[in-house]
Amino acid sequence: MAKQHSPRFLQLVADAKSRIRECTVADVRAQQQAQTSFVLIDVREESEYAAGHIPGAIHISKGVLERDIEAKVPDPQTPLILYCGGGFRSALAADALQKMGYTNVLSMDGGWRAWTEAGLPTEK
Q1: What is the pLDDT of residue 9?
Q2: So which residues are the catalytic ones?
Q3: Structural domains of the chain in order of their starting residue, each with its CATH number
């Protein structure tokens, strides 16, 4: 069952989504299979990442993303794809990174939930 989010949170997410670009799970999988160069970032909590994540993803939780991104991805033109549990936190994170000057940021719509529902590969 999907988590019920508060109206103010959903409004904040909708505002962020008006400024960011999103991609689908299929888009991400196609880029992986084509071996396209991009950095896949899991912005969920550490416990969520440890329980399972998309192969090749690095973990930078949303709570420390702005603080730690430049050390892990110093070039603001690097293609980035962010994901979370359902696509809301990653939208907020993508908006923040764009404000920091990152120019090639996507948020994966549907997040981890859509990825696993599609039966795509995961790892621990």
Answers
A1: 95
A2: 84
A3: 21-117 (3.40.250.10)
